[in-house]
């Protein structure tokens, strides 16, 4: 059975950790009470107590002398507890005020004061969070009401427009009937705009434009009325009558208020482009409409609906976290008070404090429960089509149950991989392809393709090890990365991906070798087909082989490659850090693209993809691309958070880019000057990286820490493990020294050395991942919010 203290520490929300009960601190105070009472009992065992001496004197005075009676132990026990019983009775008489009993013991009094402080802290934090969530709930319900009204108005007028269009089709010759307005055309470009006629309709009659403007004015009036009913005011604008007069005087144009709009935050390049296009269209319109007029079209209404749905999901998650906060703290107080009464025997003080906990707002308030039920009902009605299973899939996703089939498949693929690898090694040795006089072109293809997939498989395997360790130490990586529990990978899934990849790759290599020995001309098509198969599986739209994980990976890679245009999330920069350790993989992918896509081998030897200047320059670009992406992410976070540490972190990646550039120059011109430049730049970058690894990412070397060179809070019990990891990280950070040493070995040994160094870097990154997430779990160093704040679409603009 797991101790409650471990379960409690694992369940704590990182961002809210300071607001939780200091359970360990209260346990330490109870231990002090226990030690003091034990010492007092030991001292009283050697000396006779005052009650025993008084009893002996009473016996002697009663004429019993120094004799012994069988009732003496009973009398002694009664005399010893008599003062306590009397004191307890006095407390009951004076306890009508409801105040806590003040213990005469120093440590007991200290415990009660500390518990009272913790209770006040929990109450204050809960009240603050509850008020914030209730306010967000009210605003969100108003936003949903506005959206429903706008959609209803637009749908009604769309139906009216269709009816008018059918009448127009039967009477085209009648000039008094207006055709459908382009503001409500089927393309949906304008559902609601400034409602002035676009220039494309300038060739129509005045009566036609008047009819269109009248319809647009009616829509505008209804939308304005809907917004006003829901609390959106129009400050500094003329009344409706004046607006209508002004509209009729200017050819029927009606300007919507400039104080309200659908605001879609530019959180990605697509929305940013939409916002820029909107402003350009408003500015460049030639019909005289106000550029600041409200600009509402179908695309923005869809974005608004999605934003409100996401806001409901974030609000529901916040409510669930606050309920978890309440239940955990109630349970912590209950457990610690049981321990206290067991050690101190202060039953009345414990009962009074327990009643105080039960009367606290975080224990008795039901506002969060009511709002949670209301949010669930609204989401069920408006976003899930009254299907509760669909609603709960979004609001409260559950992790699926583990099955033994995955474990069986992991073992099957692993055994198959080992067997096929042995077969391939034997065939390759018999064919003599690994000899110095072997087929050089074949070795180039095999080395790059095998290394590419082997490094991917190794990274998946180490990620599976990370998932296993995080689960064993109760680190909630799904919460930290904001992954849905029902689609997040488990360690068994990661192991299955790793084993299946290697099994498929080695099977392809065996088939390729058989075809080559048989003299088939299409043998090289097998590695190319393997790459095409992998790309097709990654992009496959069907729900096979972890579709949600594949799409999440592609979405994160898109965010990384387009940095800094996307908002940086925890999963984004964590994946970007992985890419900085996969630079050899990117180079192997570059060679594979050159070989299989450019088709250079048909007219040129294989050295074309390794010796040409264009290839070398591209290799240089690939070497610092991951560092560039990571630096851009740091700059984006600095702009949003104004945290100077993000600039310092960007400087670390800039120093890595400089070191990579100097090493590239040294490989081209290996002179003593550039060798010293490599030593200086790479040493400086390594020291920078080691400092950031140990101090910032892992949280070590905390001043005045109770754990030497570490931090106060540690998850692993054995401190020696942390010191070994620090030494391993230090040694593997110095792998660049191999480029300066210029070891004289043949080409096959060089390939083996490069693959080994690349594998060691991935291993270093794998164990870096564990300590980085451990520090995030304990201290929330990334400063990410537990509850995301989703911007609401309908807002009132500030006016002068």
TrEMBL record:
InterPro entries: EXS_C (IPR004342), PHO1 (IPR052486), SPX_dom (IPR004331)
Spans annotated as Disordered: 86-105
GO terms (BP aspect): cellular response to phosphate starvation
Membrane-spanning intervals of the chain: 406-427, 447-469, 494-515, 527-546, 673-691, 720-737
EXS domain boundaries: 610-800
Top-rank taxon, per record: Eukaryota
Domain SPX: 2-354
Topology within the bilayer: Multi-pass membrane protein
Stretches assigned to coiled coil: none
Subcellular location: Membrane
Any one GO cellular component localisation term in the record: membrane
Keywords tagged on the record: Membrane, Transmembrane, Transmembrane helix
Similarity remark: Belongs to the SYG1 (TC 2.A.94) family.
Protein name, as recorded: Phosphate transporter 1
Protein's organism: Aegilops tauschii subsp. strangulata
